[in-house]
From TrEMBL:
This is NADH-FMN oxidoreductase RutF, flavin reductase (DIM6/NTAB) family. Gene3D superfamilies: Electron Transport, Fmn-binding Protein, Chain A (2.30.110.10). Residues 18-173 form the Flavin reductase like domain. The lineage of its organism: Bacteria, Pseudomonadati, Pseudomonadota, Alphaproteobacteria, Rhodobacterales. GO terms for molecular function: FMN binding; oxidoreductase activity, acting on the CH-NH group of donors, NAD or NADP as acceptor. InterPro entries: Flavin_Rdtase-like_dom, Split_barrel_FMN-bd.
Length: 201
């Protein structure tokens, strides 16, 4: 099968995000300039550089009460900071709860029954008990093709790692089993790993 996205795929559901999988989930927490708290998951997310460490995520829809975007990007525009919380399998239901298009006054931490911890380097809450949290200073917001598509880039200026996730000096994902996004309503979880050496190593 071949299709041109501009002409449609003819399938019951869009296959694009099922093809590019699995995708890590960035559970992004922000605080508005008015002090309001927001927490939302983004599966167009990844690390993009080592030195300095940088991450990105993309927001691809909008809410009526936020104009051309959603609460997360609107808050980052105001404050210039955000925190990426890593999602473990056991937090899947709470993560899913925070994915709704809630009013901007809604505190998703409270909605999902999650405890907050204050970040160290930025004025923002993070998910207490998350395997890791990355405190970020926004470096740029790039408008992508499409009315509501924005890519947000940030430099990681603070890193929290849960002590039990560090095994023999390595941050071991097997201690918490990260959740990943697939297509449609599907998710997957990392429960096994293997090692490959690069040529010449």
């Amino acid at each position: 099968m071949f299709y041109r996205p501009t002409e449609g795929h003819g399938l019951p559901h869009n296959p694009f995000n099922a093809i590019v999988t699995p995708r890590p989930i960035g559970w992004i927490s922000t605080r508005g300039s008015d002090g309001s708290e927001n927490l939302a998951p983004y599966s167009f997310f990844n690390a993009v550089a080592y030195t300095p460490p940088q991450v990105m995520f993309a927001s691809t829809s909008a809410k009526e009460d936020r104009g051309d975007t959603k609460d997360t990007v609107a808050n980052i525009r105001e404050t210039g900071v955000f925190c990426v919380n890593i999602v473990q399998y056991e937090m899947r239901d709470a993560m899913n709860k925070t994915s709704g298009a809630w009013d901007k006054e809604t505190d998703e931490f409270e909605l999902a029954g999650l405890s907050k911890a204050e970040c160290s380097e930025i004025a923002c809450s993070r998910v207490e008990g998350a395997p890791a949290s990355l405190e970020c200073r926004m470096t740029q917001i790039v408008r992508l093709e499409g009315d509501t598509n924005f890519a947000v880039f940030g430099e990681v200026i603070g890193v929290h790692m849960r002590d039990d996730c560090i095994v023999d000096g390595i941050f071991d994902v097997m201690t918490y089993n990260p959740l990943s996004r697939m297509g449609y309503r599907d998710y997957t979880v990392v429960r096994e790993k293997f090692e490959l050496k690069r040529p010449g190593e």
